[in-house]
Amino acid sequence: MVVKDDKMKEQEKEIGKVMVMSDEELEQLRDKITTTPSTLTYGHHAGSALIKPEDKGKIKGQALAAMHEQSQMQLAKIYDQVKVLVKQAEEVQNRVEISEQIYTAEMKFKPLIGHEYHLYEKKDGTRLLSVISPKEWGSNLPFKNHMASVKLLSDHTWLRLDE
Question: What is the pTM for the complete model shown?
């Protein structure tokens, strides 16, 4: 047998009562209720799913950090590619410079593509392209100095072999 105290008895009486409210009180209550509880951004009863507010600052901070990391990785790759391109440009520039020296030098033969030749500076300051290497001249080098050993490429530029 359940023993009811006075408080429980009063609550049972109030449950069965009809509440009478003024229009003004009803209007105030309408602002506090909804007919579409699924659209609420929070749980509307005790059995609702737990909804935690997102820390937007934290989300933005993590996204910003990830963006910076990815950007730095991509910039590092581009920087490496630029270094390769600069090196290639320097190699082409060196080939152009030595090619200009060779084409202004004295040549007593027609050079063949893919063969090795040697550029010398004569005692009068002019240049000469020869098929004879400095080793073949030995100690009897008839020129002021050996400037470069070169190879004629198919695009008719010259590649230094002694660098």
Answer: 0.54
